[in-house]
Write a structure and sequence with these properties.
It is built from 13 helices and 14 strands. By secondary structure, the protein is of the alpha/beta class. The termini are far apart. Belongs to the leucine-binding protein family.
Length: 409
């Protein structure tokens, strides 16, 4: 009798514990799609950017998402930095992944999807500077930095005042290609800046070449003979390397201004000389890749130590970090405002349009991020960081350089 009473009591207690135990909240999965180029012009630097992306996702899932019972899953697709490839793959990606947000790579993505994304209700974030053809209201393709012309203009004014003592306009040329709309747009934007600011810069020539040129010595000789002060190359490492080899062959030393995705470290590596772009410059409205102990560098080190980040500290890694930190913060804010079950492309874009993320929110990678329906890039006061290369290392030349006004083109 005592044994039966004990068994009944034990069973009752166990049942009561089960009934009163809190149910484990079900984890919600939010899908993100990403474009990459492991086979085209960015194949040699894409792993760095991709490493930055994935480390931020892992960090957020463990440190933030776990507390919200949400996990972000990213699926990456190789588009070879090609407009036609991006356009053909997108319907299948959209149907398969059903992403709440898309991590774009560059110009071909904007050219292929700019008109489609508003209808698809999926926002795309890109860590590149903005293209002129995307500078329109009500965009769903959003850039984290102002236009390439804004970034180049900030650098050229700094160069004029510091290297030329402000005595005359900078003579600037650009090497680019008509193969992609984005590359062609870079030349138009720079021309727009120089035309609006004749006291600051004089446009020498736009050299149109292949995306991956074999030799540009003849064109570079023309630029040298014209007295060019700065050669702007915001396209890719292949064009940067071809231009550097041409200058070496001519025995000339005209400074080259690079963008982040074809920056000093990546281009030097492609050249086969770790100090190959010594004295040249890299410019972007995002954290720079110098060795200074910045908040951004501390975040990177933490990802290395705790979340398996293998990418080295360079501009491509920083772009991957910056793009993804804005993405996860936008998703996080949407979850807190609407609930995990209502995170859609439309709700994430609404968050991006109505939120102002600070530098602290973005771990120092960006000075902040705020968008509006009028501009597909942050509308706050943008500033660029300028670095150069010395003894194989990237060192800061100037920080928080003002970005000039550039007319739309």
């Amino acid at each position: 009798m005592q044994r039966k009473t004990f068994l009944k009591l034990t069973t009752a207690l166990a049942t009561g514990l089960l009934l009163n135990a809190p149910a484990h909240a079900q984890t919600t999965t939010i899908n993100v799609a990403a474009f990459a180029d492991f086979a085209g012009p960015y194949a040699n630097v894409m792993p760095q950017m991709q490493g930055g992306r994935l480390a931020v996702i892992e960090w957020w899932n463990k440190e933030v998402g776990s507390k919200l019972n949400v996990q972000i899953v990213v699926k990456t697709f190789d588009t070879r930095y090609d407009v036609a490839q991006t356009a053909s793959l997108w319907p299948g990606i959209k149907a398969e992944v059903k992403p709440a947000l898309l991590l774009g790579l560059g110009g071909p993505d904007a050219a292929a999807l700019q008109q489609r994304l508003p209808e698809d209700k999926i926002p795309m974030l890109m860590s590149t500077a903005t293209y002129g053809f995307g500078w329109k209201p009500n965009q769903w393709a959003l850039n984290l930095r102002p236009t390439y012309a804004h970034e180049a203009g900030g650098f050229l004014e700094w160069f004029r005042t510091t290297k030329l003592d402000g005595k005359r306009p900078v003579k600037v040329a650009i090497i680019t290609s008509e193969a992609t709309p984005a590359y062609a747009d870079m030349a138009k934007g720079l021309q727009s800046f120089t035309k609006a600011n004749p006291d600051k810069a004089t446009f020498v020539e736009a050299v149109w070449t292949e995306v991956q040129p074999a030799d540009v010595t003849l064109a570079v000789r023309r630029l040298v003979n014209a007295g060019t002060d700065v050669i702007v190359i915001q396209t890719n490492t292949a064009q940067a390397v071809a231009t550097k080899r041409a200058l070496q062959a001519l025995g000339k030393n005209v400074p080259i201004m690079l963008s982040l995705h074809n920056g000093l470290v990546g281009s030097s590596k492609a050249l086969g000389d770790p100090n190959g772009f010594a004295g040249d410059f890299e410019v972007g409205a995002i954290a720079d890749a110098s060795e200074s102990d910045s908040t951004a560098r501390q975040f990177y080190s933490m990802l290395q130590e705790k979340h398996g980040l293998k990418s080295t500290w360079n501009a491509m890694t920083i772009m991957g970090l910056g793009q993804t930190i804005v993405a996860v913060r936008a998703i996080e804010a949407t979850i807190k405002a609407k609930g995990a079950g209502k995170v859609t492309g439309e709700s994430v874009r609404e968050t991006l349009m109505n939120s102002q993320f600070t530098s602290n929110d973005l771990m120092g990678i960006l000075p902040g991020a705020d968008f509006s329906n009028d501009n597909p890039f942050p509308t706050g006061t943008a500033k660029v960081n300028i670095v150069t290369m010395k003894d194989g290392k990237v060192v800061r030349a100037a920080g928080d350089v003002a970005v000039p006004m550039v007319p739309k083109w």
